[in-house]
Amino acid sequence: SIVSNDSWTIVKMMSTAFASMGKPPPAAAALMATDSASHRTLIPESQREFLDSQQGVLYNALLNGVYKAGLGLMKNHDVESEPVLVARKEVYEKLDEVEDLLSKQRFLLGDKLTAPDVRLAMTLFRWDASYRVAFVLMGGRGILLGDGYPNLKAYLRDLYVVMEPAIDFVAIRQYYRIHQSVNKAFIRSQGKKFEEEKEEDLPPIPDLREIIASAKQPAGSRP
To answer: Checking CA distances to 119, which of 1, 67, 106, 164 falls within 20 to 30 Å?
Structure first.
């Protein structure tokens, strides 16, 4: 038997070796390409090598970048270090890059939904609910909240139609323990003691009801 906990390896296995064992929901299937056996797939055969390279870049800069920025700060006793600053910069730059890309096409690789889209979406659905506050990424703009990334917002709303059963915003919030104390890293990184800060001075915690309501809105016109 082959055992792996690498998410990209698992996605590839489910989309190739196990493609015949299940069918995606009709709404998702309509967005996906087909393989040589006419099975719907998130990893088209003609694009496998390209998908590998693209997801690697996306993973390093953004999907894992949020953790390098947030957990890196915690591991360094909540003091900003060069690796943390670099990771933050890469996260913000990748968000801007994808925002621009999605102004020209519906999905990351064109008009078909592929595995990197699903992986990116899972990170972006966590952005407003958890990552921005918990990992002190307040330099990035809101996605489902506000108008900082209009194309990313439309992209998530588009995908929420087919991914809603897999998105549990309450679980996301609980998993990342979003409460005022996670902002200690932010306060200390500014050279202040947490105990000296008034609660109203801390970055506000996003309202999950607003995030969910935004996700359910129509995507509007997209490329």
So the answer is: 1
